[in-house]
Design brief:
The protein is of the alpha/beta class. It has an 8-stranded parallel beta sheet with strand order 6-5-4-3-2-1-8-7, covered by helices on one side. Strand 1, helix 1 and strand 2 form a beta-alpha-beta unit. Helix 4 crosses helix 5 and helix 9 packs across helix 10. The longest helix has 17 residues. The two termini are about 30 Å apart.
Length: about 325
């Protein structure tokens, strides 16, 4: 996929780095029992699939990804989306100081002088956009950023930021990274997250489509809820498999019905439930680039097939309980 402002085309899926393939001793909240050599060998397999674009953040993925790219001589070959300004225990950190601190730390960890796509990880609505957008615009004009955008900013704030940018001759947000998947997020899983699922965000999706703003959809499998790891009629298995944040976000009759329909269509079409769920994203009017995490390379090869899997308009609507 070609996106204005990026030097390289994007593959259909961004490799999410919040998994054991990209964790190390400094990120203990993502456990792994893999050695560095095993991690690199698995990432090699993903790279050989043509997946050379990665999603990471100041808090995860950058160290191992940077080490891998340096070791394999691929530092300049990858497309990297990374993020800064995530809150800590003490403050929200959406400030020019924290933005620049996170940004330059990211460059160091990734062994680069340039970030293809830089995003603000969280928002603090009390901070005027006039304090943040000029910092990003300056980094872009200095050649340090290809395009910039926002993850987990409300659409209201996103549009406000772009209105300010337009009024002041700045580029503005060219990409967004909210949660988006077949499963409707009924409640914020983690705190501070933003989803564009459900009828309540229909106008937001319409605006993003009209503006041709690419949507880098995180939790594209909704924490595994819609992946086919359990059957829709086995809630005991679902409860055992899903994390507490995932249950908080997606445990609802409507989502079990979406899963049941994905199971039915997968059986009819001879593919996996995960392929149906991922194909649903690729068959939207929105320009969607799913972010796909996983502990083994086979997860990526399976879901990559969905990029060319066509659903009818009625199937897309039926899966989402619209017909």
């Amino acid at each position: 996929m070609k996106i204005n402002g990026l030097k390289k085309e994007l593959p259909p899926i961004l490799v999410g780095t919040s998994s054991g393939l990209f964790t190390d001793e400094m990120s203990p909240w993502i456990p792994t029992n893999l050695t560095r050599e095993e991690q690199f060998a698995a990432i090699d397999q993903i790279w050989e699939m043509g997946l050379h674009a990665f999603d990471c953040a100041a808090g995860y993925g950058e160290r191992v990804l940077g080490a891998y790219l340096l070791d394999r001589g691929r530092v300049e070959d990858a497309v990297i989306l990374t993020k800064g300004c995530h809150p800590n225990f003490y403050r929200k950190r959406v400030t020019p100081f924290d933005l620049l601190s996170d940004f330059y730390d990211s460059l160091a960890k990734l062994h680069r002088e340039y970030i293809d796509i830089y995003m603000l990880h969280r928002d603090d609505p009390t901070v005027p956009v006039s304090e943040i957008i000029p910092v990003l615009d300056k980094l872009q004009k200095e050649g340090k950023i290809g395009i910039y955008g926002a993850s987990n900013w409300s659409m209201e704030r996103f549009r406000e930021a772009n209105a300010f940018a337009a009024e002041n001759g700045m580029d503005g947000f060219r990409a967004i990274s909210p949660h988006y998947s077949l499963a409707h997020q009924i409640e914020d899983c983690w705190g501070g997250g933003v989803s564009i699922t459900g009828p309540e965000h229909a106008e937001d999706r319409k605006w993003l489509t009209e503006q041709q703003i690419p949507v880098f959809a995180y939790s594209s499998m909704s924490g595994g809820f819609i992946s086919g790891e359990f059957k829709s009629n086995d809630r005991e298995a679902a409860a055992a498999f899903l994390s507490e944040p995932t249950k908080k976000g997606y445990w609802a009759d409507e989502n079990f019905e979406r899963l049941a329909r994905a199971e039915q269509l997968a059986k009819e079409r001879g593919v996996s439930v995960a392929t149906i769920a991922m194909a649903w994203l690729f068959n939207q009017d929105l320009k969607v680039i799913p972010i796909q995490g996983g502990h083994v390379p086979s997860f990526f090869s399976q879901n990559l097939k969905a990029a060319d899997f066509k659903l009818t308009e009625r199937e897309v609507r039926w899966l989402n309980l619209e017909v």
